[in-house]
Write a structure and sequence with these properties.
By secondary structure, this protein is of the alpha/beta class. The protein has one domain: 5'-nuclease (Rossmann fold), CATH 3.40.50. The protein is built from 8 helices and 5 strands, in the order E-H-H-E-H-H-H-E-H-E-H-E-H. A 5-stranded parallel β-sheet has the order 3-2-1-4-5. Strand 4, helix 7 and strand 5 form a beta-alpha-beta unit. Helix 2 crosses helix 8 and helix 3 packs antiparallel against helix 5.
Length: 143
């Protein structure tokens, strides 16, 4: 059904809500149109909620907490849940990033979309998963 499966790091979600024209925003639009499959774990959804609900982000997005909650509800409908399974941990320097790699590995993702390419590249490559900036992920979705 889907040609590509991506895990969207939290920084990509934030960038998509901050800019109306960037590649991250386009990835959110294409996700809502079901043009690719996005994978996330419960831990990732909780991180999305915590980060998007920060006062400074609400101000930058020019959104209310209620609007963020509606966005998160929609995001939860668009995302394919991935169950945690992590016998191979730790793989990354930052333990807070492990759940992103975990979702990508357990969901058989084609790529992790992130601005923190260096954080994931070596470990993701071990599992045959690409690390992509939002613009590169968009290019892979072009027909």
């Amino acid at each position: 059904m889907y040609d590509m499966k991506y895990v969207l790091d939290t920084d990509v979600i934030v960038a998509g809500l901050r800019s109306r024209t960037g590649a991250s925003r386009q990835l959110l639009i294409l996700l809502s149109q079901r043009r690719y499959q996005a994978l996330a774990s419960v831990a990732m959804m909780l991180e999305y909620e915590a980060v998007l609900s920060r006062i400074e982000n609400l101000a930058a997005f020019n959104l209310t907490i209620e609007e963020i909650e509606r966005f998160l509800d929609s995001l939860a409908m668009w995302i394919t849940p991935v169950a945690p399974f992590y016998l191979w941990r730790p793989q990354l320097r930052d333990p807070a990033d492990e759940h992103v790699l975990e979702a990508a590995v357990n969901g058989d993702a084609d790529g992790i979309v992130t601005f923190n390419h260096r954080h994931f590249q070596t470990a993701a490559r071990r599992f045959g998963i690409a690390t992509l900036k939002p613009g590169d992920a968009l290019k892979r979705l072009e027909p």
